[in-house]
Amino acid sequence: MIQLSDHLQLVHDYQRDGVVRIRKFFTAETVAEIRAELDQYIRDDLPSKPVDARTLEADGKTIRNLWRLEQHDEFFRRLAQRTEITDLIARLVRGEPVLAGVETFSKPARIGSGVPYHQDNAYFCRTPPDMLTLWIAIDPVTVENGAVYFIKGSHKLGMQPTKPSGVTGNSVGLAEPPATPESDQFCATLDPGDATIHHCEIIHHSDPNHTDRSRLGLLFVYRGAHTTTDEQLKTTYSEAVTATPPA
Ligand SMILES: O=C(O)CCC(=O)C(=O)O
Fold first, then answer.
1. To 5 degrees, how large is the angle CA 218–CA 38–CA 203?
2. CB distance 105 to ligand 1 below 6 Å
């Protein structure tokens, strides 16, 4: 893994923009280990896990997301809790980092579905919003195969009105699409091993993958230990997830 020596610049950019891109976050060797572990988990372990350990694409068989890998697989729990990572995350969540989730957004070739405009805190429901996602590219991430687009600075706007999206795995979306056109948004193209870190209130989305190339991302979600549940956000989330369950 790379040495994250320039924390200060990164913290500054994250606070200003709500998202940062880090090249070569993991080495090619670590990316290969992650891919092998995911393959093994899906083949040997997932069949005996609860049905909500994954969300499928519309074909009813291809994995869209794996959820709660930190509970289901020791390899991922350990990887996400390496001190090189949590030392950086502590600065960004302004306190002791607690691992809240390890998951995939797999975006498989040809059938990978889009993710509607949203703010993650509509799902996480924490206050203060000191929570974030480290999104690590396992496959190359391009404009064509469904890179995530972020509206820089939108994490400073507070929570925007939401509506149930009807999208399995992403049940809460923004009530209205943002005024900023996609061409003015930050498109997080990544090579394998590169990563982004995004704030839980930044507005973002991704488009479907109609290409022949998979766009697999591994996500580590952290919150500050000082954050608590925002009951109002939780009520809205519970209604949406009841309307569109993740599995
Ligand atoms: O990977 C994607 O396409 C979307 C990811 C996302 O919405 C998130 O990290 O909150």
1. 15
2. yes
Residue range 217-237, pLDDT digits in tens? 999 999 999 999 999 999 988
With beta carbons less than 8 A apart as the criterion, state whether 92 and 215 touch: no
Q: What residue ranges do the domains of the chain occupy?
A: 7-243
- Helix H, strand E, coil C: the string for 27-68 is CHHHHHHHHHHHHHHHHHHHHHCCHHHEEECCCCCCEEEECC
Burial of 23 from C-beta contacts in 10 A (0-12 / 13-18 / 19+): exposed
Ligand 1 neighbourhood includes 206 CB (under 6 angstroms): yes
pTM given for the model: 0.95
Compute the C-alpha angle 175/156/234, nearest 5°: 50
pLDDT, tens only, 29-49: 999 999 999 999 999 999 999
- Atom from ligand 1 closest to the CA of residue 204: 7
Cβ neighbours for 235, distance < 8 A, ≥ 6 positions apart: none
Q: What is the CATH number of domain 7-243?
A: 2.60.120.620
Give me Rg for the CA atoms of the chain: 17
Q: Give the residue among 104, 105, 109, 120 at the shortest CA–CA distance from 72.
A: 104
